[in-house]
Design goal:
- The termini are far apart.
- This protein has one domain.
- 16% of the residues lie in helices and 47% in strands.
- The strands form 2 sheets. Strands 1, 4, 5, 6 and 7 form a 5-stranded antiparallel sheet that branches. It has a 3-stranded antiparallel sheet with strand order 3-2-8, with no helix packed on it.
- The longest helix is centred in the N-terminal third of the chain and has 19 residues.
- Strand 2 and strand 3 form a beta hairpin.
- It is an alpha+beta fold and 122 residues long.
Length: 122
């Protein structure tokens, strides 16, 4: 019984840092980066929450950008929907994370889009 209690306490202590990081702030928008793989062109895409932008044949919609309190750059995450011209269903819809772009990435043969950071003011 004591071993179970110690195990539970250990799990609680391991979870404590995660709980502390749950305090997030909403940015006013995000800066995304786009790569056109054929030509190698790279562009930064500055977006406000709730807006759309075009990148090649893609239409990018930014829902919102959030970040841990005090860190709008490294740990930013944004809800993004990406549609391709001539295709009804979204090519990508979900949260992209700045510090781990491959974790939930756009899987497109010609384009890469990833989140760089949240914007904190207009």
């Amino acid at each position: 019984m004591r071993a179970i209690a110690l195990f539970g306490l250990g799990l609680l202590l391991l979870a404590a840092p995660v709980v502390a990081q749950d305090v997030t702030e909403q940015g006013t928008g995000a800066v995304l980066r786009g790569l056109e793989k054929v030509s190698g062109d790279v562009s930064d895409i500055d977006m406000d929450n709730g807006t759309r932008a075009e990148f090649g044949r893609l239409r990018i919609e930014l829902g919102e950008c959030r970040y841990p309190e005090g860190d709008p750059v490294g740990e930013a995450f944004a809800f993004v929907t990406i549609r391709e011209e001539g295709r009804e269903a979204p090519y990508f819809s979900g949260w992209m994370i700045a510090s781990a772009p491959a974790l939930n990435a756009l899987d497109h043969p010609r384009y890469d889009i990833w989140v760089m950071r949240c914007k904190t003011s207009e």
